[in-house]
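Thread title: Can someone regenerate the structure for this chain?

I was given the following input by a collaborator and told the matching structure tokens would be attached. They weren't. Posting the sequence so someone can regenerate them.
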Amino acid sequence: MAGKGGFVGNEEGKGFLVTIGSWIYWIVVIEVLLVLTCLPTLVAFLLTGWSGTGVLIAGLSMIFVGPAMAAALFAWRKKLTDSDMSPARHFFRGYRVSVKDVALWWVPVIVVATAILMAWLNRSVYDGPEWMLYFSGLVLIVLALVSCHMLQLSALFSFRVRDRVRLAISSAIMHPIVTFGYAALLFLAGALVWLVGDIVLVLFASVFSLFAYLDGQPVERDITRRFIATPDDGDDEPVQN
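Best answer:
Regenerated them for you:
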């Protein structure tokens, strides 16, 4: 197994103000790149409503979000491991190396999640067993939490899809604090959309991606320790295949 590495870019300077400026710069750049790579999703949400085919279109448009979030997670790891001032380069590198890994499982997850969401929004005309409706809601919650772990694994490591699924499920169980952190972020995102609107979530997308990466760091360290070989010369960068 291998970790997804990168290269060291332009090293940032030292000092409190430089550090603050660097963080602001990274947040703004990654925010802009997230908006650009998720533009089809944003357009779909703006032009459709939460009824009928609008739900289907908006739900399926979330396909673009997975690879973009994985790219942001990849970039945030570089920010926290290298003194670097190249967020755009790392974001696009993360997008390139992760888009296929993410798409293989993200697309089916979005299709299933959209189907469940449509069933819930149209529950007034649902004539099946009521327990099935609540069970589907539980499936949606579990799917969302496991998908958060999957995004982190897809962004940072080169595992096969079936291995990634097993690791995501086991990580969700073995690292309950991380899973609870993901649940809190999802709840906060949903609350912002419900109470304020989609635009607020869009404006803070890069901050959410940063908190998601920070929350998943215990899992990253655990996976690295258990499965990733490191060079004998003491370099902390995981070995590439």
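The chain has a mean pLDDT of 86.
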